[in-house]
Design a protein that fits this description.
Number of helices: 16
Structural class: alpha+beta
Radius of gyration: 32 Å
Helix content: 25-40%
Number of strands: 25
Length: 648
């Protein structure tokens, strides 16, 4: 008898080790997992309330949700000093993050996997991943485990396999703010990511996550190709696009690859609840605060606008004979009800001790077309919440989520956009005055027909063009406003300690740090802003001064300058001055005295533009444009043209 008992135990242990039994396959929680995402926490010594509420989230909310894991997708700390005008890694911020995520959770014996990854703020002023300034390796959950770049976390939950793959697109050399806004995946990182994906079991569910949205990564095509093998790509970084307040930044790439950007914790206290139930991915974006309980996430049937046509299974009408929804609250749940197409109330029952609630239904009645599902939950604190969503069981009737602006932001390439802006702005700023002068010269020489010449003259009389023509009459100003944009396009902007204590030089097209080149992309955008806004403002100010001096010279030149024009030009002048002074202070704080002194884009631009304005004030009046070019005295007669020929 003893030997038979031992034999039975061995067989039982064998089957338990081998995998779930048939009874487990029928369990309500089989094939179900739920997890949380939080992004852009920005722990900051300047905002202790942010850290306090983050601590409450990790302590209390994880206790309510009891997720299978948490994804923290970058910008763990802020790394900004001097009122946000400079950047460096602040160790006290990292200690605070470590206390919340590692120390406190260990004290509470919370073993929930916390998968974090670096964001651009976690890489500010960090020379490389092995640098002493890379506090991610000393204070983060995954950094302490040696995961300093892209990594994979594989697990098996309730009878299903899952792979969570972190994609690190932070720059290998962590430049200072704002030069690392656009990320990149280096060749070595691409090779590592390929090896991570290569070993994935195709029967498992794969979730990709990172900090940078695909639109903000130089290697965008590689990134999209990689994440196409997973259910979804989760990220942050763009917050809510500031003034646009975009809280639904979701997009389908190629009609089937889903990307979900999450609004930040920093200002919005946002987080995301996700679930995979029988192969169907569901999610809801939420806000921290007691007023948001109960939280409801229907998993079957799922929202029709986020159906993954080629990645999720077809809805089995025979198998899925229950409506399934997850319900969470800090208080006890009293009741959960479901309504289908405004039909009668269906009472849901709780499955075991977990958050799953189910109720019977007949899916055959809804096998085609779009339908509505409404879930209502009430908790012990008398809080009632309702969630309504459309669903489709045949996939054909499903209308995918389609937000034009979100598609534009996530579908574009910031890298390509910045480069196009750079080329266009360089072409316009360098060629503007020479082309304008050449056209005016041809017009004055009656090169065009009388009709065309009249049109050209009317265009040249326009306020801004007329003022620009005044600048062309003063050679030093003409050459400065033409050649300075050329220098900014190709020459160094700042030379100094660019990363930690390592010297380098920043250009519009990238940064050299020691002997390593970093393609930062942001320089292209800064160049465009400089030459499309600041440069034309100073050009307009100089042209306005020249025009006013010509009018008040008493020689009947120029045009009278009205009070309104004086006010407009004055406002633009002070705006440009403020931006220059602000930029100079930032360069001084970021790159030190040497960086400020050798900061062509900031300090010397201020000096050069001030010199151009001073030159406009002090230039001799005889040099000021005399309006001969834009005053057409009519087409010359044949006798006049013949006299000109004889004279020459």
């Amino acid at each position: 008898m003893m030997s038979m008992g031992k034999g039975f135990e061995v067989v039982l242990l064998f089957f338990l080790f081998l995998g779930p039994s048939s009874e487990l396959e029928n369990d309500a929680y089989t094939g179900l997992t739920w997890f949380l995402q939080i992004s852009d926490v920005h722990i900051s010594f300047k905002h202790p309330d942010r850290t306090k509420e983050f601590r409450e989230f990790v302590r209390d909310y994880l206790g309510v949700y009891k997720p299978d894991l948490v994804l923290c997708t970058g910008d763990l700390t802020d790394g900004k000093i001097f009122r946000g005008m400079s950047s460096k890694q602040v160790e006290s911020e990292w200690r605070d993050y470590h206390d919340v995520v590692v120390t406190d959770r260990r004290r509470r014996q919370d073993t929930t996997p916390w998968l974090d990854i670096r964001g651009n703020h976690d890489n500010l002023n960090v020379l490389n991943r092995q640098s002493q300034q890379n506090y991610f390796r000393n204070y983060s959950s995954m950094g302490l485990q040696g995961n300093l770049e892209s990594y994979k976390y594989s697990t098996r939950l309730r009878g299903r396999g899952y792979n969570f793959i972190a994609l690190d697109a932070t720059l290998d050399v962590g430049t200072r703010f704002p030069f690392n806004f656009v990320g990149d995946i280096s060749t070595s990182q691409q090779d590592k990511i390929r090896s991570l994906v290569k070993d994935v079991n195709p029967k498992d569910h794969t979730i990709f996550f990172g900090h940078y949205p695909s639109s903000t990564v130089r290697a965008k095509e590689f990134l999209l190709s990689t994440v196409s093998s997973g259910l979804v790509y989760l990220n942050g970084h763009l917050h809510d696009l500031a003034i646009f307040r975009l809280h639904t930044m979701y997009s389908f790439h190629g009609g089937q690859n889903l990307e979900l950007e999450l609004v930040d914790w920093k200002w919005n206290r946002a987080y995301r609840l996700l679930a995979i139930d029988q192969g169907f991915l569901s999610f809801t974006d939420l806000r921290f605060g007691s007023d948001n309980w109960p939280v409801i996430l229907p998993t079957l049937p799922k929202r029709s606008d986020f159906l993954l046509q080629s990645k999720e299974p077809d809805f089995d009408l025979q198998k899925f004979d229950q409506i399934r929804t997850l319900v969470f609250s800090a208080s006890q749940i009293l009741s959960v009800s479901a309504f289908v197409d405004d039909g009668d109330e269906i009472t849901c029952r709780k499955e075991g001790d977990g958050p799953l609630y189910t109720c019977p239904w007949n899916p055959h009645n809804y096998k085609s077309g779009l339908h509505k599902l409404k879930i209502v939950a009430k908790d012990n604190s008398n809080r009632v919440k309702a969630v309504q969503q459309s669903f489709s069981l045949d996939k054909v009737s499903a209308k995918p989520f389609n937000h034009a602006f979100a598609n534009f932001v996530l579908g574009a390439s910031f890298s390509v956009t910045f480069q196009v802006l750079y080329l266009v702005s360089a072409l316009l700023s360098i060629s503007f005055l020479p082309v304008l002068y050449f056209i005016a010269k041809l017009s004055s020489q009656r090169y065009f027909s009388e009709r065309v010449n009249g049109i050209v003259q009317r265009i040249l009389h326009c306020c801004c063009l007329r003022k620009a023509l005044n600048v062309t009459s003063v050679k030093p100003l003409f050459y400065f406003f033409t050649l300075f944009p050329l220098y900014l396009a190709v020459g160094p902007w700042v030379i100094g300690k660019l990363v930690e204590d390592t010297y380098g030089a920043a250009f519009a097209w990238g940064i050299f740090v020691s002997t390593e080149f970093v393609a930062t992309e942001v320089g292209y955008f800064k160049y465009a802003m400089q030459t499309l806004f600041i440069h034309p403002i100073v050009l307009l100010v100089c042209g306005h001064i020249l025009e006013c001096r010509a009018y008040y010279s008493g020689q009947n030149r120029g045009r009278k300058c009205g009070i309104m024009m004086h006010i407009v030009v004055g406002i633009l002048f002070f705006l440009a001055s403020y931006l220059f002074i602000f930029e100079s202070i930032i360069f001084w704080l970021q790159f030190g005295v040497m960086g400020a002194f050798l900061g062509i884009l900031s300090t010397w631009s201020l000096i050069f533009y001030s010199g151009a304005i001073f030159w406009s004030v002090r230039v001799s009046r005889s040099s000021v444009y005399t309006n001969v070019v834009i005053e057409d005295h009519g087409k010359k007669t044949d006798d006049e043209q013949e006299d000109d020929i004889l004279t020459t």
